[in-house]
Amino acid sequence: MSNIEHLVVIGTGLIGGSVALALRRAGCVERITGVGRSAANLEEAVRLGIIDDFDHDIKKAVADADMVLIAVPVAACDSVFQSLASSLSAGAIVTDAGSTKQSVMISAAKYLKDVSRFVPAHPIAGTEHSGSAAAFAELFEDRMCILTPNEKTEAKALAKVTALWQAVGSHVEVMSAREHDDVLASVSHLPHLAAFAIVNAVGKNDAAFRFAAGGFRDFTRIASSSPEMWRDIALCNSLAIVDKIDALQAELKALRDALNDSDGDVLLEKFKAAKQARDSWLDEYGEKL
Ligand code: NAP
Questions:
Q1: CATH number for the domain that contains residue 283
Q2: Which atom of ligand 1 is nearest to 226's Cα?
Q3: Same-domain pairing of 155 and 214
Q4: Which of 46, 70, 208, 211 has a 20 to 30 A CA-CA distance from 79?
C-alpha cells in the first residue's frame, strides 16, 4: 500500500495496538500517535514500540494525520467523532474497528462535515484480552475484515482503507452495515451474551466451579472479554441481538419441553442437527480460525 505518513490510533488497545504493530511490520507507516484516556496504557504502548508518541487531546493529535483509526469501545465513538470533526485535515481518511457498524456510521454522519472519507471497518479477529499489552502484529493474519461503505464513500478512500486492512494480513469483504450487524449478532454477539449468562447462572461462588473442566472453559472463554466493550456492543446492536436471543430461547424451550416429556428422539434430532452444522462449518472454515 502507499505510505501512511502520520497514523493516529484513537484507542491503543488490543485492536488499535495490533493494527499499529502490523502496519509497522509491513513498513507502510512513518509515524504513529496514540490517543487514549490513561497515561499508563499509552506509556506502555510507547515502551512496546506500538506508537511513537501520544496525546490525550484528540483535536491536537489528528490535526496533521493522513489516516485516523478509531479503536475505542463502540459507544465512545460518538464523542470521538465529535472531538475530531473540526480538526481533521482536508484529505485525512478515517477508519474504525468497531464491532457494530450502523451505530458508528450514525455517529460519523452526525459530526463529520464530509463522511465520504470515513470507511467503516470491523476486523473479524480478536482475543478476550484488552489493552496495549495484549496487542500483537499477527492478530489479523488470514482473518476477515468487513468494510461497510455506503453510497457516500469516496472510491479513493475505500481503496486506501482496503489496502490498510490487507497490509495487516486481512481478507477484505464488503457488505452493508445492516447486514453486518445482523450476521454478527448471530455469530458473535449472541454467543458472548450466552457465555456471560452461563457463567452467571452457575454463580461465582457456586462450589460447582471446582468441578468444571475443559468443556466449561472452552464454552465460557469469551466471558472473560472486556465488560465495558461488551456493554457497548450489546447496547449499540440491541435490536438485532434481541432477535437472536428470542431464537435461542425458542431452542432452549424446545430442549426443556423434550426433557419434560422424556422425549429422547427430539433431543437426538436437535443434537444431531447442531453437530452436523458445526462439523460442516469447521470442515469448510476451520483452517482459517
Ligand atoms: P481494548 O483493548 O479495551 O482497547 C480500547 C482502547 O480504547 C483502550 O486503549 C482504551 O484506553 C481506549 N478507550 C476506551 N474508551 C475511550 C474513550 N472514551 N476515548 C478514548 N479512548 C478510549 O479494546 P479492543 O479489544 O481493542 O476493542 C477496540 C474496538 O475494536 C471496539 O470497538 C471493539 O468493539 C472492536 N473489536 C474488538 C475485538 C476483540 O475481540 N477485542 C474484535 C474486533 C473488533 P484507555 O482506557 O486508556 O482510554
A1: 1.10.3660.10
A2: 3
A3: no
A4: 46
